[in-house]
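name: query_chain
kind: protein
chains: 1
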Amino acid sequence: MAIDPKKAQDVWKDIGEHVQFTVLKLKREDQAHELEVIREFCDRYQAIIRSLKIRDSNPQAESRLKVTFGFSNAAWDYLFPNGPKPKELETYTELKGPKYKMPASEGDLFFHIRASNEAVVYEAQTQFMRFLRDVTEVVDETKGFRYFEGRAIIGFIDGTEAPEVEKAADYALIGDEDPTFENGSYAFAQKWLHNMDFWNKLKTEGQEKAVGREKFSDIELEDEDKFKNAHNVSSKVEIDGEEQKIIRMNVPFSDPASGKTGTYFMGYARHWRVTKMMLQQMLDTSDFLLTFSKILSGQLFFIPSKDTLDDITDEKI
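structure:
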């Protein structure tokens, strides 16, 4: 079978304007009951999304609601110990470089909700929790937002290296290399907290050398004009001479009065190993962004296709 984006969750398009990331932990008190709840939720989940798309009162924003829901490796093993498992699903553990680390954090269930209307985001998460609250605890809940014309909070256009829309699904969705889980995706979620005072004190020229692009025009600098650990150098990965890509849906988050501002890194990929290689290379080269950032969390999740969600509901997994 060929990759079919219509059978996938929303892992390859539309970063959104209002965004929520939620990580939940299963209580692990009664596996049979928790599995029963999850099976019912996988059915309800898709119905809730369809209903909210109809209820959205803004005709210009119809169908702008995009949601993904997934499982960590630990959750998959707990819920489906005798079932098949995606080939590259593993528990993310801390990655280390010569100067910096990318820590791992706990989490079983993951939601990435985005829409043009904050009320829709609120209602989606509220309805999801009606079914999940009794069997889960909240690990993290982060609200993100679109910053001006889609720039990162550090002022540069974000996602320049991401593949164009017509090719994005091929980079985001599992193919026939793992036919049982075709049209699923590997999601890596990571929170970065930035020292914005440090960054803002840099002159524009220094910021451009750090990112590897011109700040206003987004034109890539010549290699000799970049820092050796410029972000677009450190995060570039090749396999057999071919550059690898993932789907980035990074958004800023902030409590501006208290000065806590950061980036929620959200990467979807057909192959987890590609994302993992990018992360390790950023550490090995001491990506400049790490010099003024603290990484707060990180975990890998598998995002099932709609067919796989149906299989979970129907007890086929």
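note: The longest helix spans residues 31-55.
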